[in-house]
Amino acid sequence: MHRRRFPAAGRWPHTARATLTLALAAALTGGLIQAHAQTAVPPAAQDPLTLRGAFEAAWARQPEALALATRRDAARAQAQAAQSWTPEPVAMELSTKTDRLNRNVGTREYEVGVAIPLWLPGERGRSQALADAEGRAVESRTTAAQLRIAAAVREAWWSWQRAHAELEAARGQLENVRRIAADVGKRLKAGDLARADQHQADAAVAAAEGAVAQADGALTVAQQHLRSLTAMPAVGLASAMPSQAEPEPPTPATATAEMDDHAELLALKDRAAVAEGAIALAATQSRASPELTIAATRDRGAYGESHNQTFTVGVRIPFGAGPRHDARVTTARAEAVELQAQMALERARLAGEREAARARADAARAQLAAAERRAGLALESRGFFDKSFRLGETDLPTRLRIESEAADAERQAARARIELAAAISAWRQALGLLPQ
Q1: What does the DSSP 8-state code read for residue 320?
Q2: What angle do CA 131, 134, 136 make, to 5 degrees?
Q3: Signal sequence span per UniProt (predicted)?
């Protein structure tokens, strides 16, 4: 049998202290390694903010989107009701007859029956057609609502992009003016320039700082407007970079051929179909639904007599509805006429918007080409005058004027890029296309 050796009593404190020290060192080392690993491995970059993402975030908050599932359930329930065997639920009839309160000779009668509503001729088929039309109207109305939300999001989105471009241009101008002011300060100390030149350069810096502050405020306003639509975090929206522009829309010929597929026209067309279906259904419902009654009766005349069993089959046919029926048909016909006229006006309006949007996109494309050409020439001129200013061949006012012209040319080019992207987006909006 092996004997286990234990440390001496005096060595216990040292052993425990050493063990505790090693455990703490291991824990600290593991924590540092884990912290270093978490620091060294960057977190997954968030997806860049896109126009499509902003639209989806805005649509998810709309009442139409929140009620869409319920409306679809209602449309399915109405379609199922139109396919049922009866227009109304079957009813049960129970009755009893007795002489217990007067003679009490034992007269008894019990009757059990059911009342079955019957479809009028053609009513079931037209009810199914109306239910199908209302189901399509729910979907087209949802698409039209999405397109209206897309218009608001697109406007806020490109306003934000314009403000972002203005701020970047203002910051670039401020950086260049500060560089010129620093150069002027050095040359002032060397005795090459006067103090008035330093004041002029400092004034240009102050003006550029004011432009940056103004652009920053405009960007904040645009961000808040976009945030009010999308409910995106302010921090994430402020740090996000604008995304690329939307793709080019279809060709004019294809766009004209797809006029009937526009969401607004489809919504009106489906509403008109619902009105036409309501007219057809109301025409068949000239009276209330007839009823088929089937009953069983069990009775006796007095005490001691045997019970008799009888069966009853009856039909209940209501008279015509008269003015009530005429009112339903006339109301549905007026709705259909109004929707047809509105659809004609909407078609003309959309055609005009498409042509205007296409012309705006062409003009923005030409404006961008001119702005980029001007920006290129201004950048080259700024390089020439910057070199001549450093050599003392150009005075400070001329240098500041050239810098201002170059900054304005860069701002116009950036603005022209945004305007072209916004024009393409507006063209897609006029074509009835959702953001991509």
Answers
A1: B
A2: 110
A3: 1-37
Residues 6 or more apart in contact with residue 174 via CB below 8 angstroms:
205, 208, 209, 211, 212
Residues 341 and 318: beta-carbon distance below 8 Å: no
Specify whether the CB–CB gap between 146 and 57 falls below 8 A.
Answer: no
DSSP SS3 for 416: helix
The pLDDT score that the predictor gives to residue 297 is: 92
DSSP state of 259: G
Which of helix, strand or coil describes residue 118? coil
DSSP 154: H
Whether 261 and 144 have beta carbons less than 8 Å apart is answered as no
Residue 184, Cβ density class (10 Å: 0-12 exposed, 13-18 middle, ≥19 buried)? buried
Per-residue burial over 50-61, b = 16 or more CB atoms within 10 Å of its CB, e = otherwise: bbebbbbbbbee
As a whole-number percent, the residues of the chain with pLDDT over 70 amount to 84
- Average pLDDT of span 363-379: 92
Which ranges constitute the DSSP H helices of 44-122? 51-60, 63-82
Tokens representing 11? 């060595």
pLDDT digits over 314-344, tens only? 988 888 767 888 888 888 889 889 999 999 9
Question: Hey, which residues does 93 pair with through a beta bridge?
Answer: 113
406: Cα separation from own chain's centroid:
40
Round to whole Å and give the CA distance between 156 and 222: 7
CA 286 to chain centre: 44
Question: What's the Cα-to-Cα distance from 74 to each of 67, 123, 125, 144, 174, rounded to whole Å?
Answer: 11, 20, 19, 19, 60
Q: Helix or strand or coil: residue 95?
A: strand
Q: In what order do the strands lie in the sheet with 91-98?
A: 91-98, 108-117, 291-300, 308-316
| Number of residues assigned to the chain | 436
Judge contact between 51 and 246, C-beta under 8 A.
yes
Taken in order of first residue, the domains within the chain and their CATH numbers are 51-84+119-286+321-430 (1.20.1600.10)
- Which of 268, 285, 267, 263 is CA-nearest to residue 337? 268
Separation CA 329–CA 283 (nearest Å): 7
